[in-house]
Amino acid sequence: MSDVRKVQVGEVQLAYRVWGEEDAPPAVLLHCLGEDGEDWRGVVGRLAGTHRVYAPDQRGHGRSDWPGAYGFERWRDDAIGFLEALGLERVALIGHSLGAVAALLLAAERPELVDRLVLEEVPVPLPAEPPQEVPEQPAGPQPFDWHAKAAVVAERNAPDPVWWDAPAKVTAPTLVIGGGESSHIPQAHLADLAERIPDARLVTVEGAGHLVHEERPGEFLAAVTSFLAP
User: Fold this and answer.
1) Nearest Cα to Cα of residue 104 among 94, 91, 112
2) pLDDT at 198 over 80
């Protein structure tokens, strides 16, 4: 895999990896809770054939700083700061789960930064039913800060209602990817989200579950590369 680099973004230092030719159009990949930039290893080779691919470790994960303060808006702001620190404009922004929420909020807040948006298995801002509980932290070292888990659970149980305003503010063409009925994300919610984004379409990879790019990398890449093609 690519060597890990670091960049200062506000109060945190973010680790990231880069693949692809320097002059290729940029693509930024935002991972889910509990993972890091290495999570994209199964699909990054193909994406790097057409794009300059950046995969950061989000705050509280991997080799980035673990400041103890987390939330979807903080992850959004970190992603904005990451693009600005590296001088990236009009990126293809691809997010999975937690990373997809950050990507959606970024595309709504700073639409000029996003050329294409891919949201894989994105939780929609509806209260979790039944409410989630933070599981006990496993023994031993973890690859991410458990406080990030607590922050996600709290915001999933009581999401900011203004987030439902975000989809209408997205100007980039958007691909929403669902994993079918085996996912814990209600697929009807993804369909509703796609309808709220002005220029969006939904692709469902039945049987993939929540980890579409891991369980069905070929189908994930077929949908994404077709969507990103000029």
Assistant:
1) 94
2) yes
